[in-house]
Amino acid sequence: MEYENYTFPEALKLLAERAGISLPEQEYSEEARRQRDLKSSVRDINKTAARYFYYMLRSPQGAKAMQYLKDRHLSDETMKKFGLGYAGPYSDALYRYLKKQGISDQLLKESGLMQVNEKQGMYDKFWNRVMFPIMDVNNKVIGFGGRVMGDAKPKYLNSPETVIFDKSRNLYGLNFARTSKKKYLLVCEGYMDVISMHQAGFTNAVASLGTALTSQHAVLLKRYTDEVILTYDSDEAGVRAALRAIPLLKAAGISAKVLHMDPYKDPDEFIKALGTDAFQERIDRAENSFLFELSVLQKSYDMKDPDSKTKFFQAVAAKIAEFEMEIERENYIEAVTGRFGISFEGMRKMVMNVLMQGVPSRKAPVRAQSRPEKEDGIRKSQRLILTWLTEYPKLFPVVSAYIRPDDFSDELYREVASMLFEQLEHGELNPAKITNHFMDPEQQRTVAQLFNTAVHVESPKEQEKAIQETIRKVMEHGIAQRTSALDPTDIEGLQKLVDAKRRLQELGRLHISL
User: Fold this and answer.
1) CB 202: neighbour CB atoms within 10 A?
2) Distance, first Cα to last Cα, the chain
3) What is the pLDDT of residues 439-461, one digit of tens each?
């Protein structure tokens, strides 16, 4: 429902069809029936329009468009796979064709395929353009993109948002890329990049639909991969697009890298000039997104001037300090050491100085901002524990020996932890059941995120170290909470606190194996 823009009955019907199950007839309210029928009708119109455009490209009227695509070195097989077409030279051709099919003006307006004004009435949105049908993950046409063959503006024209099309929640080519055997997805800028890359064998390429990558796109990508390689143009606009996309992908728990195509502008040019093997080599050497950000940042400083160089390293230290986990910070300090010619200890001290700036001295009054920052760090550690327990349920005996559900600071976190611990105690693991326990959609999204928190580590050994460090953080926070709330007359509570502190001391001898 959320990502494919379906109503509940539509989503249920789709899943039932996949499973070969016959559903009983659903009773709809009048409004629900109207919405269902409208979406179904708009899908049918899009399907009819796609067939019309497909036919027009292969007709005598489409000769110029066909030559344009041939000049772009697209094969007949590729054009067929992506359903490429042509919107004829007249601005009312599609309108007249669809009217012959008995479709009302109101439905044509809802479809997004028509424009309306007082002088011309209703006329085609797309004409004299090469057409790219946009399909959802189930290969159903939900919209179109059209490209001019000359210098007219706009170069690309996309369908407006309709009852079935939301460009911020769909990615071009994902219907093919989601079945790719590759563990990562290549995110490009436009239709032609995706098509050219698929033709060259890179069938895991997708692109946003005439808009910058959004947080909804990132969440959609997370459904299919944990790693994205940004394959944007090498010009300034492409660099800016990559810088905007990186934090969105990171927030969704996706590891991002950036592919460098110099001296070529885009993937299409690169592949035509150097071939697929060279492009695969560039993919294999794609740059870590954090180091890419630093390389862009470096261009703002004069590295030959000592003062400017120092300011650059201070800016780098501030960015490294944003990582919550010590193991992450050390990994990136090591990477920066090799990349920019600064000693490990020198950069480490600069990072520690940044971290200490936010920590008040014992005599100084506590700043109002420091507590929320610390709380956010603890929340991330608690989310990581819940994520790791769902990924590695065999860790439960180890984690439960040190952490209890009441160690979680937030009420929602505690409730989720209690349910997860109870499941694991009984040898079960069903995060979806826990998510569905909550009726509020916002709570459901929050709970789903608790099971999908990511941290960048290079190896299982480093992840084991990160898990141990996270357990310590959560324990220390829980002990501090209980200490501040302890009634001096509560002997039982005092004993539990002593036991918790003893377990914390034992944690240093703990060996975690994944």
Assistant:
1) 23
2) 35
3) 777 788 788 888 877 666 566 67
